[in-house]
């Protein structure tokens, strides 16, 4: 173990099953927010719709009040990368918005994000979202087949580099993370290949895997609201995220109703329910 590395929290099966409950509530809340992301809707409306599902399920928000964050989701539109604050902004036809949310059940956290193109999609935005989403699934598959956390970023990087056509940038300023009794925990989960292998993948490890890709340069800045992160070149950005558990029999995507089967089986990985 390296000095200065915070300890990783390894979960019991029972704890991971509770995280799965939190993930399922979150998945339903995201379904509702995604369905509400239509031209003319405000980002605040998406937040209201998302919060209502959490309330109905008796789940708590891990975003609301996090370092003072004022909403239950982050809504990041177009050149906004992450941490956009829901408000009076009205969604327009062709906007690309990432909706990032989380839920807590009995003290255990989930965290997941999806990108939606509002109304008519620019084909380049659609490609950005499709590649980011597929990159996330390649990263998740690497959690099942790899030995070290660094294998995830390598798989994401290799996949994104292999996509034909205009290259897309992988953000380096924001990364995935461990998750469990808190939303953001050790270890960091980079979305790109480095020489650092990272900690070993073993049962009880739960990670939020969340590649963020951009159509232009990877340099970012934070707006005066101290939250909203934008690309400095104004090019569009995208994020997809799932929380995933490693247990003794395999992996299970906590924030997907099917454990990720639809997207993982084609990559050679069959998710296994937490025992
Ligand atoms: Mg998130
Ligand atoms: Mg996250």
In terms of topology, how is this protein built?
Blueprint: H1 13-36, H2 43-57, E1 73-77, E2 80-82, E3 96-105, E4 108-117, H3 123-145, H4 150-162, E5 169-170, E6 176-178, E7 185-189, E8 206-209, E9 212-214, E10 220-222, E11 229-231, E12 237-239, E13 242-247, E14 250-253, H5 261-264
Antiparallel strand pairs: 1-3, 2-11, 3-4, 5-9, 6-7, 6-8, 8-13, 9-12, 10-11, 13-14
Helix pairs in contact: 1-2, 3-4
Low-confidence stretches: none
Shape: globular
Helix content: 25-40%
Spatial strand order of the main sheet? 7-6-8-13-14
Derived from helix and strand composition plus strand pairing, the structural class reads alpha+beta
Based on DSSP secondary structure assignment, what is the total number of beta strands? 14
The CATH H-level homologous superfamily: Creatinase/methionine aminopeptidase superfamily
Q: DSSP helix count?
A: 5
Label the CATH architecture: Alpha-Beta Complex
Ligand set: magnesium ion
Biggest sheet features: 5 strands, antiparallel
Alpha-carbon distance between the two ends: 29 Å
